[in-house]
Structures
1.
Amino acid sequence: MQAIVHSRYGPPDALELKDIDKPVINDDAVLVKVRAAAVGKGDWLTVQGLPYVARLRYGLPNPKHPVPGFDVAGRIEAVGPNVNRLQAGDEVFGWCDGSFAEYASVPQGQLAQKPANLSFEQAAAVPISGFAALQALRDTGAVQPGQQVVVIGASGGVGSFAVQLAKAFGAQVTGVCSTNSVDLVRSLGADHVIDYTQQDFTRTGRRYDLILEMAGNRSLAHLRRALTPRGRWCWSEDRAVGGSWGPAAPSERSWCRRSWASGCGRSCQSPGERTWLF
Ligand SMILES: NC(=O)c1ccc[n+]([C@@H]2O[C@H](COP(=O)([O-])OP(=O)(O)OC[C@H]3O[C@@H](n4cnc5c(N)ncnc54)[C@H](OP(=O)(O)O)[C@@H]3O)[C@@H](O)[C@H]2O)c1
């Protein structure tokens, strides 16, 4: 099969189109004929081998998984003997290691049936960013109807899902983005949009029950003045591992929370604990 392969960490010119063997599926996995794969920030970081500590998992000195790509949508071609939820011919979407290829081996627990009203391209855009947004809002942020939620980085992969999901949970949503993205974020349903190049969202007088911080790395003191007394702040792991170093390895994705009311409540979730939206 053909696949995008990286044999060393580096910029995109480290990627090559090559003929390689089809993946062999284990007992709990399925073989997916890939119809669409998405590219997100995590892919960019993995190809570069950032943060450096992630190379302990992804391979030293070179990547041990030659094919990058996490988000996948496609049709199942074969199933392992222990697979009981899916069958050949099913149209599915989810996440895996190695979706930038004609075929990917995917554990059945990381896939769901593709809704018929989504194209493969649309479905492939959902898993990593959509679940990060869902976990941050529902599981870590515990968002409730009527709450004030601000999404910093509302125009990005995670933020654009977070705006829509927060609205679906009944929250009043403020999106923070750059000038060029204001119309996009408004079109996603945000009740208020703040252009961070023009205005500091912590100085509008509005207080938030939940701050989702996907970008910006503002100081805690800065953010705290925009929180209600029992407000929650959820940040992406960019901050946890130190700004420009980027997020933790995708398989270690986690969203951490700090409840100011309880002092330092902190929880992290692994991909295995994700639950499906559909
Ligand atoms: N835990 C998980 O499972 C998981 C999954 C995916 C991503 N993540 C992490 O979540 C974070 C966001 O990922 P992403 O895929 O959404 O990234 P992204 O697509 O690059 O989006 C980030 C957005 O932030 C905006 N931005 C930049 N500087 C800003 C600032 N100072 N204030 C407000 N907004 C600013 C940019 O939009 P403008 O052009 O409008 O400024 C950009 O669209 C990353 O740290 C990523 O590693 C975690």
2.
Amino acid sequence: MWGAALLAGALALLAWCVAFLRRRASHWRARGLPHLRPRLLFGNALAYALSRQSCAQLLEDAYRRLAGHALGGFHLLWRPALLVRDPALAGRLLVHDFESFRDRGYRPFDPMLQDLFFLRGDHRWRTLRESLEPGFGPKGARYLFFLLDEMALRLVKVLETPAERCLELEVFEQMQRFVIDTVGTCAFGVEFETMLNYDSFVLKETQRMISGSFLKKIKKTLLLAVPETARAMGMRFVRPEDAAVFRWLTAEIVAHRRRNNVRRGDLIQLLMALAAKEADAGQKDGFGGEMLSAQVMLLLMLGRQKVAAALAFCLHLLAAHPEEQTRARVQVDAALRRHHQQLSLQALQDMPYLDMVLSETLRLHPPMSNVTRGCTAAYTFRGASRLGDGCLRLQPGEAPVMVPVCALHRDPAYFPQPDRFLPDRFAPDNASQHTPYTYMPFGAGKRSCLGEHLSLVLMKTTLARLLSRYELFPSPRTEYPSPVDPRQLLLSPRDGLWIKISNRHWLPCD
Ligand code: HEM
């Protein structure tokens, strides 16, 4: 009798689940929106969940299949999502109608994800953003330039031996080491020495968290697509032991400052000042403690991964394109001559071709393949639905809205011969012809990348230093274009990025 009751209960639960999934799968059909037909459980994300497709490929595929529509629906597992294909509409949502799209469209339950990137777009996000902005803009770059350049020179030094022997180098990992050290020195005021120490604790811990496996990808897909269900299943983006590492690291950084009375206008100082101000005002749950650790983690994980990928792809592209490499180097040499061999922010301004090279790199390989927003106030998309008056009224929390940055960057309608590396697309006269909101490696609007200016200064400084000293060549392991790793959330190379490096004026290595 108990067995029959259990079986009946299980069948009733199964029937409820199927009805629920069917209702979810018919979400966009019922709203009359052009959409991709979803599978019952996986929606349109089966290949993505199984690590056969990266996020960029998933969205490029949806972008292609929804051609002809400004807006279309698809499903991430059983969660309905919206794809914005039309750049003008993307600009409207991200910039002009920001008040209706203040969130990221993902509700993190992890305390360690209370960072500026994931915070909901409320007063806490605004306070944090306004407090940090001065440190990341042109004033911050002027203040930090000396240190950024010092780090670039350390990288040049580390590469001396491989360059003398004309060795093969995997630049993605090398750039990650470089960026971790730069973040340590410039944002936290500590020396991680990851470039020198191949057994570095910080590198090992952060690599362990990023490393992709089949199961991890399924877990991440659940956490991103259906966070409530993932939470009910006891899943977390950041495992308690990983969170503990970042708490410990943050406490060490703060203690180091207090012990040595370090006072510099860097990120940690800005955050500590904000926490102290809130504590003085008697505000509980302020920006100290867990919030501080969350920002440290954001920088060491997300910030590091994005800058390292952009720099590594750039070196890889220059190795595969000798003419563009030579043109960049000639301009670096000329600018340095003009500035008496002193690299400065003014000297960087005389190297516009490096900006073009970096822009074209970020067009081909935007580290974040999409920009996502959550609807925070009901919003009407006119002319989107085939039903009734043709309007689609999106309710708060109904579906994340995704702008497929990578797909727009590779659409031949906006960038002819999209797979070719052509920095001249970004020459001032050509760049002004680009359709607005078709090029957005740093996102757009009030939630655009906080680190944009500093990242560009760091990347340009590093390129100038490397090109003035070394030459880059393809190696037998250079794969061009390089395959992407479908297990990673951010755009990353699957098998690393291999090049050969040699001192300048040497004959190319065979
Ligand atoms: C090449 C390097 C980088 C690229 C391509 C990049 C790209 C992006 C993109 C696409 C977004 C989302 C923007 C949007 O939703 O409109 C973003 C957000 C953000 N990025 Fe970056 N990023 C880079 C480096 C960094 C670095 C080094 C930091 C370190 C501080 C950083 C901090 C942030 C923060 C805090 C946000 C969230 C801003 C907010 O929600 O208010 N990024 N980034």
3.
Amino acid sequence: MSYPVTYHCPHCETIVALERDGYLADKAVTPYPFEGWRYADPTEPFEDDAADGVRFACGDSDGVVWAPDEDEADGSRPGCGEPFYLSFVRYENGQEVDPRAESEFVTIDPDPRPSGPGTPDGPDGSGGFW
Ligand SMILES: [Zn+2]
């Protein structure tokens, strides 16, 4: 048995309906691929470890239904054309693989201020307090 599961494009919120097997282990939908994940097109096999996720081209990918709830009467094509990625949960040695390991923690600086108050080489402090 498979049934449609819907996802939102992270760029434009267009809904896509993808036929999935009963077992769902989705991790995230992101505008970029996770490092180390293998992505398949929706028309390729991706269940049962055939891939680690699915790559969509918003509004363009075959094998899925775009904007299933929208009235097609106006003939406009849904989607923004940007790629986005559905990533499944991956396990390695029984541990869930975290795609955000390390790199994101080191690139995000919680305190970007280069110098706080009281830096030793501020403007010459000879004026003191009046
Ligand atoms: Zn889109």
4.
Amino acid sequence: MGDRNGMGDAGARGDAKGGNDMREVQGAQTPEDADGVHQAHRASGVHGVHGIKDVVVVGAGAAGLNAALVLARARRSVAVVDGGSPRNAPAAHMHGYLSRDGMPPAALLEVGRAELAWYGVELIDGQVDHIEDHGRGTGQGVAGQAMGDRSGGFVPGFAVHLAGGPALRARRVLVATGLRDELPEIPGVRERWGRDLLHCPYCHGYEVRDQPLGVLGTHPGAVAHALLLRQWSDDVVLFPHTLELTGEERERLAARGVRIVTGVVGRLVVADDRLRGVELADGHVVPRGAVFVFPRMLPRDALLTELGCERDEGGWVITDAAGRTGVRGVWAAGNVADPRAQVVTAAGMGAAAAFAMNHDLVEEEIERAVAAHRAGQSADSVADSVVGREGGPEAVGSAVGAPGWADAAAMVTSATSADTGPGSGADHDSGSGAGARS
Ligand SMILES: Cc1cc2nc3c(=O)[nH]c(=O)nc-3n(C[C@H](O)[C@H](O)[C@H](O)COP(=O)(O)OP(=O)(O)OC[C@H]3O[C@@H](n4cnc5c(N)ncnc54)[C@H](O)[C@@H]3O)c2cc1C
């Protein structure tokens, strides 16, 4: 099948030694190109979206893209809608992802999108406004079902409404919308975010190893943050800022060799596009090469909570290990469900959700087939009526023909590289002339 992901031997660092695909990807995504994802989305466009998708994925970060890949390879029809603002966009490089260490974050997503397009997945540049639950039958809201549980007669179905646009019909939805980092309102913090104002030692600690590091005490987790960062440098200063430290915390910091500099932080000092230090309100500047902060992490989970998904005490939507929420047919993966998820973890969560979703769809199809079998239909006619074939008349029950339906093709502007995809176009979507790819 050749070098589908275009990585070739180029490795992870984006040295563009791969094939043509890689050059396209790399060319669109430089570290300086803050809007790279948006631009790439606009450039790739989408091809026609027709009928009922087995799964609509909201969010094309690592979680959503990996889920879509697994589902497409399970011969499911999939559309992915993405607003183009992945969490790690401010960072020039991504670390800790085996075989992709040091790659620009946007390049990873572009390679993923190219892989999906090859399988005929619909990639839609847009924002999902809300999701309507058109499921029918009994048993909705059954939480924590294990993989393989039978749907028990309930047929999930959804209308995924794009902002200012039409709705996509889906048998299942995966919400992989990530989270939002709320940063403290200290001058310089927002500007340096993802560059030399960092939060994750595992992502960027190695790159600032042995440098003079600071930790801003804008969050109760700052003490633990500072203690952890000693692993990367023996020159760590905690600025408690407005945080009150306990005696025990002071002892632990002292024992670990972390210095404490008291006083309210006024701003980050930047010169020649580099962080130089932390300035206190009294004007005193403590030179630092990089500063760490613990942002307040807020899940972008409105689509889930509006559907009735419940949050735990910590404020995160409750899912099982496979990402299944308490609302039938609705899954969540990545940072929207787990703030600790790194890129590789988010991708894994997407894969786990995809396995479970496919399993759930298979179960629904078996139930339907058994019912038809009992009614004396032939295997062929059963197959024809099995939900999951796009455009199947009963795929989302009451959703079909609901007011406000529109063909998403109306919002579609141009064809993607999916046009060069493999046989999945024939399997899933007669849309846009899928052909063999060399
Ligand atoms: C500065 C920074 C640097 C980081 N560096 C690293 C690193 O080096 N290594 C690492 O492993 N991790 C790193 N991370 C963490 C990494 O960003 C996350 O692990 C990862 O992005 C989670 O992937 P996700 O798919 O869950 O969400 P995201 O990547 O955030 O993707 C979510 C997508 O959903 C879209 N979306 C949201 N709402 C909607 C909607 N309503 N409709 C349509 N689309 C929507 C968004 O536009 C976005 O594209 C870093 C994070 C930050 C903040």
